[in-house]
């Protein structure tokens, strides 16, 4: 890889990290509420999304809405950066090897998601454990304490990878479909409605308008979330198995079966899904900020030439 490509991938890495931080911070309260519902926390399991958010503020103050978000930011920058830059690299490899195809966006996205999850998964476990705690009943005092306790007192390094199998399986449709859907809709918009959805930048490239980017990102997020959500629920239950008797220490398929058997589809496998629909703007923000930063850095022109 020559120095020019290294600089371009570095810019893509930075753009992906910043975009993911902006997106996650915008929905951090909803993300914490989802964890509390998925994990069936005893104080929140019978509440809805908005009543739950009100209860968090009442019990823990406004800052309670962002509990675990510091750990999330530590995780999400490398996660988003690795995911986006890996997508660009894998897509370029597939294009050179097999030619142009929209299906390659799915393969590149899925592989990029797996790469990002594998690298940052322990931070996701720590973040989930911190976000699940309730004021006055803390087991972990912070990120480093959580790492230390999980390794020394809760089963060692392998406990930092609880729920890893559903996480990896989930990103294949979730991230793959996100990138595929976004790139496909982006192509359709610029191909069939360029006057409405497109605009030219100073380099003569035609890109989506900001509003069109948001719409494409939102649709891509909705498709991916619906398909992958049960795996996300299983992942959370496995991650939180040391903090609540409602969670399971078994394997992926046992966790999915027990969740379905005990609570059904709507209140079990898809519990908290309403929050994920409310979080669809997060995906829109992520793709939009990433695309805007790529345009600012002039990455598209060379990466896709």
Automatic annotation (TrEMBL):
Coiled-coil annotated residue ranges, if any: none
PROSITE patterns: SOLCAR
Membrane topology according to the record: Multi-pass membrane protein
Subcellular location: Mitochondrion inner membrane
Domain of life: Eukaryota
Regions crossing the membrane: none
Keywords of this entry: Membrane, Mitochondrion, Mitochondrion inner membrane, Repeat, Transmembrane, Transport
GO BP: transmembrane transport
UniProt keyword Glycoprotein, yes or no: no
Solcar repeat intervals: 7-93, 100-188, 208-296
Database matches in Gene3D superfamilies: Mitochondrial carrier domain
Cellular component terms per the entry's GO annotation: mitochondrial inner membrane
Entries under InterPro entries matching the protein: GDC-like, MCP, MCP_dom_sf, MCP_transmembrane
Cited Pfam families: Mito_carr
UniProt family annotation: Belongs to the mitochondrial carrier (TC 2.A.29) family.
Protein name stated in the entry: Graves disease carrier protein homolog
Gene encoding the protein: Slc25a16
